[in-house]
Each structure stands twice: as structure tokens, then as C-alpha cells.
Write a structure and sequence with these properties.
The complex is a heterodimer of chains A (about 450) and B (about 350). Chain A is built from 14 helices and 8 strands. With about 450 residues, chain A is mainly α. Chain A has one domain. In chain A, β7 and β8 form a beta hairpin. In chain A, α11 runs antiparallel to α13. The longest helix of chain A is centred in the middle third of the chain and has 37 residues. Chain A starts with a helix and ends in a 19-residue tail after the last helix. By secondary structure, chain B is mostly helical. Chain B is globular, with a radius of gyration of 20 Å. Chain B has a two-stranded antiparallel ribbon with strand order 1-2. Classes of the chains: A mainly alpha (about 450), B mainly alpha (about 350). Chains A and B meet through α3, α4, α5 and α14 of A and α4, α5, α6 and α14 of B.
Chain lengths: ~450, ~350
């Protein structure tokens, strides 16, 4: 075991958490921009084209951030997790290489056309580039989720003479049933971030009384798509993910729920603090038998608690697993309420004038980011102490020759650079929002670069 | 067999990266010299604006493919070159945002700041890439488990305790900078007009002599540092086509520079880069990462390749993927053909 293990984990956690702030929005927006472009194509209304052009600018800034913070993720497999890469590369190298070959080229080519090619391509061509950007980013999401899913639930591999794993079935890896559920759940989460961002900005424009037309479009599209996404996030995708955990990682499920003792008719804890010394939940607020029902569809079923497993198989930080899961689920529930209420008011025709609801939509912007981050933290800390579940311990995966001092050096370097990136990002987003959608014309921009999104 | 095929394919992807991202790196390295006013500098940025991101994807795709085909090498090289790779990442980030964010705020101070960041990061990247290649050629202190770790520098000498930077790798780093600067100057001559075009052409004429001198020097030194390279050429004389391609490219460059044919001189530069890289790769085969201390610990095609089934399946999707990539690239470069100007267009760099 390396002295650098803790720093290596912090290094990956920091860079991946920061990175995923951007793809969750771009994957969600890619769908919403495609919807706007489709509306423009079918209604012939230039309003939707301008709306799409505006969101493409927001998309471009986030995409650039996602690209520059994404490259370090691929590198870190080798730099910080060399022992893991040596063992697992024969399998997950497939999905990672395919992401480069299929998604990145597709995205980078068609994003340029989406941003700068509207006149040259014509209406259908431009719609097509929106479709390609959507496919590219969602394919990229799939290949990465499939990689992570394999670490959660390894399939389609054989163990070689030196411990290296090799692939035995291409489709087995790509169609890992864990990947299918995890992908559905992850993409719903991304769409939630996209819809909340769109609705929040629309609500902001309506509240300050600027760009009202666009404000209404943004709120309408955001809420209609958002109500579906928030519900699907709970059922079927969240539920499906939970079923898989119960079957394949029961100890993780117990840690997530804060269930210390195996019991029949297990309750679900809404609030409470895990007390690791006394092995119980302090100040619990529970719904009796609900966990048994949600897990096995029977109120009296027995759910395994942490005590059913030796402690060395528990996630090494149960409170983090517990809290990140509860934050995710709590926020997810609130999202359904907000989007449900907003959709109902939209249907009644009162949403655009009922200011408290617009305030609620605007202020909810940060929370999908928190929920998505918490969800990934549940998955990643819940998988511990394994880097490949049941096959390889995280401690065995770090680079044997890279010392903790060097990892600290680069972790601090990334923190500095990402601080600079955050400031620039907020400045640019502020400028786009401040200008609003109406200034974006198809006529040539002034030659100086001042009006560029890129 | 599969290992050798993938060795060639990964080398091809890396060569594509160097040829494509090489011209925008080179343009960045000479940015402050060939373009003096804000308009001229905006012209330089515009000439690479729509393509640099796609060019950089080749690095990612090559990295991913290397991981897929040679996981043991990826693990060893990436952890051993830990510090320079991280520094390369930071430079790539800074360079990317300097291109994208330069035009966002209308202020001379803002322009100046990003111009210097753009030029500085491009210049350092060119040197680091050269040094990285030299590290692979020279060999690294691999242990019996196939790992190593190199500090950025130790005593700048060759020997058992090398750092990333020693006199040999620095020499190759500078050679890479000069070569890519010439490549970038020829790109700018091709894509721009006016003062930038004339300065780029003049610069290319003098850089060519520097490239010629460095080519001879680096080749001679490399043959001494890594005897495996000339050994392969002697054993398999058909491999002389690679250095021959490099020589033809070098000669062609001068010929077309003098004839002021910007397009053909840029193509010759591409041929020169391809020839040099393929010569190195051919010279190293079957080594991928030679061990400097004990040759028995060297990483080779056969001891670092992934499982046969995976490599065979990969060949299918890789070919499909590359056909698609060729299609997009032809379209993107095609829609961006001709010289750039500051007027009109959807491009807003």
C-alpha cells in the first residue's frame, strides 16, 4: 500500500467533482437545444432559433470547461492509478478509447458547425448539427458510465497469468445491465440540471422584466421537460439502480440507508446521523417498513444491515455514503414537487404571473448540481474499499512509484488553475446572461472578437 | 501480430496529432513575433480557431487507444512521467482558454495578457513534447515490475539516474520547438495575408536552416544515445523509406519556400514531421519504452499488449471510427478553406 493513497483519492475526487459540474449541464442542454431547434424547424418561428442560439453560447462555454477539465481525468488513470490501469486496461481501455474515437471527434466537429455554421448549413443542416452534438455528448456519457459501471459490477473479463484482466465479450461489456440503469439515472440527472438551468434563467428574465418572450419559452420548455425528468429520476431509474445495489452491493445499500442491524420490516430513515461508535442512527426520523418494501416489494422482508458483513467489507466512510445518498434523495424529492407544481400552474396558465413560483424556480438553480454531485459521491464512496468491486482493493490500485509529495504538488496546482477557471467561467456566463438572447442575430458580427461565445 | 498492428496504429494517431496540433502550437510559439498589432494577432487566432480543438482530440484519442492496446505501457509511462504530464495538462488548459477567452473582453490589457499566455504555453508545450519523445528514445530507469519515476531534472547527464530534462532531452526539446515553429510559420503563410503572411514567409526561410542543422545534430546524437535505432535500420534496410520521407520533406520545404508556394511547402513540412516520427518509431520497434538500467526490463510490444480478443474487436470499431473521423475532418477543413480575414463570417475569434 502506498503512502500516497489518501492524496491520490483526494486528487481524483477533486478533479472529477469539478469536471462533472460542466458535462451534467451540457448533456442536459444538448437535448434541450435539440428540442428548441426542432420547434424552430416545425413551426418556422425564428424565436426558437434565437433561443437555441442563446443556449448554444451557454453550452459552448460549459463545453470548453468540460473539455479542459476532462483531459486530466483520462490522464489520471495512468498517472495516479497505474496499478489499476495495468490490471483493468485490457477491459475498460475499450470504452475509454471508443469515447475518444467516436464521441470527441463528433462533438468537436459538429459543435463548431452548430456555433458558426448556421448560415452556411441552412435550416436542416443546422438542425442536423444540433442532433450530432446531442448524439456525441450522450454517447460520450454512455461510454464513461459503462466504464464506471464495470468498476461497480465487473463483467465480461478473464484473469490472466499475471493478474491482468482481459476482455471476453465486447457486447457483454457494453451492455452490462448495471451500465444501462446507471446511464438512465445519470442522464436523467443531467437533464434535470439542464431543465432547472433553463427554467431558472427564464424565471430570472420574467422577474426582472427583460426578454419576457424568451423568459416564457425558457420556463415552459424547462418545466415541461423537467417534470418528466424529475419523475423518471425516482422511478424507474432510481428504483432500478436501488434494486441492482440490493442484489450486488448489499453492504453499500446498508451504508446508504444507515441500516446497522439486519431486520425484517426494515424502516427507511429520512433524517438521522450515523453514530459509528455505537453502531446506530442518532435522532432517527423513520418510516416503518418502507425500506423492506422499496427493496423487495414486501413490507415484511428482511433487509441485511451492516452487521451482516465483516467490517473490512464496509465502505470505509459510512457517514459520507449515508449523507451523500440522503442529500441526493431529499433533493430529488423536492425537485419533483417544484417541477410538478410549476407544471400544474403552467397548465392553469398562472405560472408566468405568480412571482413566488418564479422565485422558487430561479433560486433552485444550484440544487441539481448538488444532487448530481451527491449521487456520484454515493456511487464512488459506496464502492469502497474496492476500486473494482470484489476484485481489486482501492489501496492496491495506486501508482507504486509516485510519492505523496508529488501528488500534493499537482493537487494544489489543479486547485489553483481551477480557481482561475471558475472566475473566468462566471465572468463569461454573466456576460452572456446580461446580454440576453435578443442581441444574437444571424447577420455577421462586428469583426472584433468581442461578441464571441468561443 | 495484433500488438504490432496496434503499435503502428497508435504511432499513426500520435503522428496525426503532431502534424495537426503541431501547426497551431507552432503558430502560437511565433505568435508574438509574426503578429505585432491587435488585428494581426486576431488573424493568427482566427487561422487556428475553428480547428485547434479538433486537432487536440487526436491527443485524447491516441491516449485512449494507447491505454486500450498497451495497458501496461500506459500505466508505466504515465506514472513515471507524472510531473511532466501534469505540467503538459496545465499548459494545455491555459493554452485552450487563452484561445477561447481572448476575444471575450474588449481591452488591450486583456488581449496582451492572453497573447502572452498563448505564446508562452505553446512554446513550452513544443519543448516538452520534444523532451518527452527524447525520454522514450533514450530509455527510462524501469524496475523489475515495469515501473519507474523520473524527477524533472537531476544532474542533466545521461546515466542511471536521469531526470526528464538532461542535455539530450533538452536538445531534442529545442529541436522540436524549431521544427514546430517552422511548421506553424508555413501554416500562417498559407492561411493569412498581408504583413503576417510576409513575416511568416521570411521567418520560415531562416528557420529552415535551423531545422536542417538540428536534424543533422539530433540524428547523430540519437544514434549514439540509442544504438537500437541505427541497428534496426541496418537489419531491415526497407526502413530507410522513413528517413527518406523526412529528407524529401525537408528538401521540398526549401524548394517550395523559395518558389513561394505556401501550400506545397506546408505539405512538405507535414511530410518531414511524419518521416521523422515514423523513423523514430521504426527504429525503436519492438521496444516501446526502453529500460536504461537493465535492458531486460524494457517494455516491448509483446509484454505490454492487451488480450488478443479485445485487440481484434477493437480493430473493427477503430476502422469504422476512423472512416467517420476522416469524413468530419474533410468537411470541417473544407468549410474553412482559403485565407482567413477579419471581415464577416460566422467565425468570431
Amino acid at each position: 500500500m502506498s503512502e500516497a493513497l489518501t492524496v491520490d483519492r483526494l486528487h481524483f475526487a477533486f478533479t472529477v467533482t469539478y469536471h462533472y459540474l460542466f458535462p451534467q449541464l451540457t448533456m442536459g442542454l444538448a437535448l434541450l437545444i435539440l428540442i428548441l431547434k426542432t420547434l424552430a424547424l416545425r413551426t418556422g418561428n425564428e424565436h426558437y432559433n434565437r433561443a437555441a442560439r442563446f443556449w448554444a453560447k451557454v453550452f459552448a462555454i460549459n463545453f470548453a470547461m468540460g473539455v479542459v477539465t476532462g483531459i486530466p481525468m483520462e490522464f489520471q488513470f495512468g498517472t495516479n492509478w497505474a496499478a489499476f490501469s495495468k490490471v483493468a486496461g485490457g477491459v475498460i481501455g475499450q470504452t475509454l478509447a471508443m469515447e475518444g474515437v467516436f464521441s470527441f471527434f463528433l462533438e468537436s466537429s459538429f459543435l463548431g458547425l452548430l456555433l458558426f455554421g448556421e448560415k452556411r448549413l441552412g435550416r436542416k443542416g443546422h438542425w442536423f448539427s444540433a442532433l450530432m452534438v446531442f448524439l456525441g455528448s450522450w454517447l460520450s456519457g454512455y461510454l464513461i458510465v459503462a466504464t464506471n459501471a464495470w468498476m461497480q459490477h465487473p463483467v465480461a473479463y478473464a484473469i490472466g497469468p499475471n493478474g491482468e484482466l482481459s476482455l471476453t465479450s465486447f457486447w457483454g461489456l457494453l451492455l452490462n445491465h448495471w451500465a444501462l440503469w446507471q446511464y438512465a439515472h445519470t442522464m436523467c440527472g443531467a437533464v434535470i440540471t439542464g431543465t432547472f438551468a433553463m427554467a431558472a434563467l427564464g424565471a430570472f428574465y420574467l422577474l426582472v422584466g427583460r426578454h419576457d418572450d424568451y423568459g416564457r419559452t425558457f420556463v415552459r420548455v424547462g418545466v415541461i421537460v423537467g417534470v418528466f425528468a424529475t419523475i423518471m429520476q425516482l422511478f424507474p431509474t432510481g428504483d432500478g439502480q436501488g434494486q441492482m445495489l440490493a442484489q450486488n452491493q448489499p453492504v453499500t445499500l446498508a451504508a446508504m440507508e444507515g441500516l446497522f442491524h439486519t431486520q425484517a420490516g426494515a424502516p427507511i430513515a429520512l433524517i438521522g446521523q450515523p453514530d459509528m461508535r455505537k453502531k446506530r442512527l442518532d435522532n432517527p426520523l423513520e418510516v416503518p417498513r418502507a425500506l423492506s418494501f422499496l427493496t423487495y416489494r414486501r413490507w415484511e422482508s428482511t433487509v441485511k444491515g451492516l452487521d451482516a458483513f465483516p467490517q473490512k467489507l464496509w465502505p470505509d466512510n459510512v457517514p459520507i455514503v449515508y449523507f451523500s445518498y440522503h442529500i441526493m434523495v431529499g433533493l430529488g424529492t423536492i425537485f419533483i414537487l417544484i417541477m410538478g407544481l410549476a407544471a400544474w400552474m403552467l397548465w392553469r396558465g398562472t405560472l408566468f404571473t405568480f412571482r413566488p413560483m418564479l422565485w422558487a424556480l430561479m433560486l433552485s438553480l444550484p440544487f441539481p448540481y448538488i444532487a448530481n454531485t451527491a449521487g456520484w459521491m454515493t456511487a464512488e464512496t459506496g464502492r469502497q474499499p474496492w476500486i473494482i468491486y470484489g476484485l481489486m482493493r482501492t489501496a492496491a490500485g495506486v501508482s507504486p512509484q509516485v510519492s505523496s509529495g508529488n501528488v500534493w504538488f499537482t493537487l494544489l496546482g489543479f486547485m489553483g488553475i481551477y480557481t482561475l477557471l471558475s472566475i473566468l467561467f462566471l465572468l463569461l456566463i454573466y456576460r452572456v446572461v446580461e446580454r440576453g438572447p435578443e442581441t444574437l442575430k444571424t447577420t455577421p458580427q462586428p469583426a472584433h472578437g468581442g461578441d464571441a461565445a468561443r | 501480430m495484433m500488438g504490432t498492428i496496434w503499435f503502428c496504429l497508435v504511432a499513426l494517431m500520435i503522428a496525426m496529432y503532431v502534424v495537426l496540433d503541431g501547426f497551431d502550437l507552432g503558430a502560437g510559439a511565433i505568435h508574438l513575433f509574426v503578429a505585432r498589432t491587435d488585428e494581426e494577432r486576431r488573424l493568427v487566432i482566427r487561422s487556428i480557431g475553428p480547428v485547434w480543438d479538433g486537432n487536440e482530440v487526436w491527443l485524447l484519442a491516441a491516449g485512449g487507444t494507447l491505454y486500450f492496446a498497451f495497458p501496461a505501457l500506459y500505466a508505466s509511462a504515465f506514472s513515471g512521467f507524472y510531473l511532466p504530464l501534469m505540467i503538459v495538462l496545465w499548459l494545455l488548459i491555459l493554452r485552450g482558454i487563452s484561445i477561447e477567452f481572448r476575444g471575450q473582453v474588449e481591452s488591450p490589457v486583456w488581449f496582451r495578457f492572453w497573447d502572452v499566455v498563448f505564446a508562452g504555453s505553446s512554446l513550452l508545450l513544443a519543448i516538452f513534447y520534444g523532451a518527452a519523445l527524447a525520454n522514450v528514445v533514450r530509455g527510462v530507469p524501469l524496475d523489475d515490475k515495469g515501473y519507474f519515476f523520473e524527477a524533472l531534472w537531476t544532474n542533466f547527464r545521461l546515466g542511471p539516474d536521469t531526470g526528464i530534462l538532461d542535455w539530450y532531452t533538452i536538445l531534442v526539446g529545442i529541436a522540436a520547438l524549431v521544427t514546430l515553429a517552422l511548421h506553424g510559420a508555413l501554416w500562417l503563410a498559407l492561411k493569412t495575408g498581408g504583413a503576417v503572411h510576409d513575416r511568416a514567409q521570411r521567418l520560415a526561410r531562416s528557420l529552415w536552416w535551423a531545422v536542417l542543422a538540428f536534424t543533422i545534430l539530433v540524428t547523430a546524437v540519437t544514434f549514439a544515445v540509442q544504438p537500437h535505432v541505427p541497428g534496426n535500420l541496418v537489419d531491415h534496410p526497407w526502413g530507410y523509406i522513413f528517413p527518406a520521407l523526412a529528407c524529401a520533406g525537408l528538401a521540398g520545404m526549401e524548394w517550395f519556400i523559395l518558389k513561394k508556394d505556401d501550400f506545397k511547402s506546408f505539405l512538405s513540412s507535414c511530410a518531414y514531421l511524419l518521416g521523422m516520427l515514423t523513423s523514430v518509431v521504426f527504429g525503436l520497434y519492438p521496444l516501446i519504452l526502453p529500460a536504461s538500467a537493465n535492458p531486460a526490463y524494457s517494455l516491448t510490444v509483446s509484454n505490454s499488449e492487451a488480450g488478443n480478443y479485445g485487440l481484434r474487436v477493437g480493430l473493427v470499431w477503430w476502422i469504422i471510427g476512423m472512416i467517420l473521423v476522416t469524413g468530419y475532418s474533410v468537411y470541417v477543413y473544407g468549410s474553412f478553406a482559403g485565407k482567413v480575414s477579419l471581415e464577416g463570417g460566422d467565425e468570431t475569434y
